[in-house]
Amino acid sequence: MKIGILTFHYAYNYGAILQAVSLYDYLKSMGHEVYMINHKNENIIKTYRISTLFSNINGFKECLLLFPKICLRLIRFNKFKRFIKKNFLTIECNKIDSLDCIIIGSDQVWNTSLTNGYDSYYWGCIPFDGYIVSYASSMNSIELSDSDKKNIKEKLMNFKSISVRESSMLNLLSPLTDKKIKLVLDPTMLNDYTYWLKRCNNSKSKSKYILSYPLRDSETVISLSQKIAGEKLCSLKIIRGDSNWNPFSKTLNTAGPSEALSLINNAEIVVTSSFHGTVLSILLQKDFYTIKCKDGNNVRTESVLNLLGLKDRMIETESDMDLSSHIDYRMVNEILMRERKKSQNYLYSILTE
Question: Number of C-alpha atoms within 13 angstroms, CB side, residue 177?
Answer without folding.
Answer: 23
